[in-house]
Amino acid sequence: MKKFLSLLLAGAAALAISAPGYAGKDLDAIKTSGVFKIGTEGTYPPFTYHDTNNTLTGFDVDIAREIARRLNVKPEFMEVKWDGLIAGLDAKRFDAVINQVGVTPERAAKFSFSIPYTTSQVVLITRDNNNTIKTFADMKGKRSAQSLTSNYGQLATSYGASLVSTDGFNQAIDLVATGRADATLNDRLSFLDFKKQRPNAPVKIVAEQADASKSAVLLRKGDPELAEAINKALQELKEDGTYARISKKYFGVDISQ
C-alpha cells in the first residue's frame, strides 16, 4: 500500500512539473523552428491581399510581420480561403490566423484570442442606384454577398437576407456592382480603401452599425505563453509608433485613435 501511494505521488509530481512545458509547447515549437506560421486570406484588401507585383501585403500582413520580428522568428504566410482558415488552425496547419477575425463568444469558447488590434464598424453596401435598401432591416428577403462562415454572413442572415457565397471582399463588391447581389455587409475601413482605389465603382454605404467590432489574432487554446508573447508584441507596436505608421500607410490615419 505504501509503495502504491509513493507511485501515485511520484506520478502527480511528474504531471505538475510537465504541465508548464505542455502549456508553452506552441511557443516553444515556434522558437525552435524559427518560423511563425500564419493563416491569412490574401484576398481582403487593405488587410491581406496581393499588390501589382503579386506580393502578399496589407495591414494585417504588416502587423503579422512585426509580431514575428518581435518573437525573433520569420513569418510564413499560408493563404487559405476564409472558410478554411479556422479549420486550418484547428488542424494545426498554422500557428495563428491573422485576417481580421472578429472576436465572438462562439469562437472564444473554442479558441484563444490576442488583445484586439483593430476596431471598426460594420457597414451596409449597395449599388449606387439602389433606393430600396436604406437600413439593415431592409435586407429582409434580399441577396447579400458574403463569405458563408464570416461574422458578416451571420449578421446578414439575422436580418433575413439570403446569402450569395463569395471568396472575399472584392468578389462581394463585384457581385453588388453588377446586380448579382443586392448588398453586402463588410468592414468600413475596407470599403474606404476600396473607394480610394476605385472611386468610380457604382457602390455606396447606406447604413453603418453604431457598435464597433473588434478583431484579434486567433490562436488554439492551451498555450497562454504564446498569447502573452503576441500581446506583448502588439502593445510594443502601439507604444513605439509602429502601429500608427502602418495605419497611415493603408488608411491615411492612425486607426488606433
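Second entry:
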Amino acid sequence: MKTALITGGSRGLGRALAGELAAGGWNLVIDARDPGALSAAAAETGARGIAGDVTDPAHRAELVRAVSGGLDLLVNNASTLGPTPMPRLDALAPAGLAAVFATNVLAPLALIQAVLPSLRERRGAILNITSDAAVENYETWGGYGTSKAALEQLSNVLAAEEPDVAVWWADPGEMNTAMLRAAGEDADAAPPPAEAAAVLRRLVETRPASGRYRVSDLVEAP
C-alpha cells in the first residue's frame, strides 16, 4: 500500500485530495492546526491525523516519524495568506512577509529535505500546491504571490536535482474555500475543491514528467 503525507489536510483542497487518495487505497497521514477539523477529516478519510503547525520543527519531526515506514508522496498543501485584509506592498511589513514565507516556502523545503531519502528509495513524488498568484500581478496579493513564486522556483530546481523523484508544482485555480473567502474574493462563485482534487489524483496516478501544471489545462486535455 502506498503512503502519502498531506499537509493542511483538514479542509479545502487538502481534505478533498485526502478523500481522493483514500478512495484509491492510499495510506494517509494528514496534518492541520485545528484539532477538531483534523479529527473530522481523519475520520472521514481513514487517515492518521497529527495536529500542529508545519512551521514548528517538532511537529515536522512528528510527521516524519509517522511515515518512517516509507513514503511515496509528499503533498505540500498547507498555506497562509498572511495579514488580512491583504495589504498592498507599500504597507506589507517585513515581519508579515517573513511569516508567509515560513509557512509557504521554508516549511515545505524542510519537509522535503526530511523525507527525500525515502522518496528516492521508493521513486516517489512531491506535489507542491501553488497558485496563479505566483505568476500574475494581482493587487494586494504581493506577499502571498511572492511566496508561491519562490515555492515554484524551489520546485523547478529540485526537479533538476532529483531525477528519480517526480516533482510537480500545481496551480489548482480558484476554489470555493475558506482561504479564498478570507482573501475577500467571491468564493461561492468558484468550483468546489473536490473538482481540482480529482484532477490532481489523476496526475499522481499517471505520473507525468516533473513540471508546472494547471488544473484547468489538465481538465481540458484529452
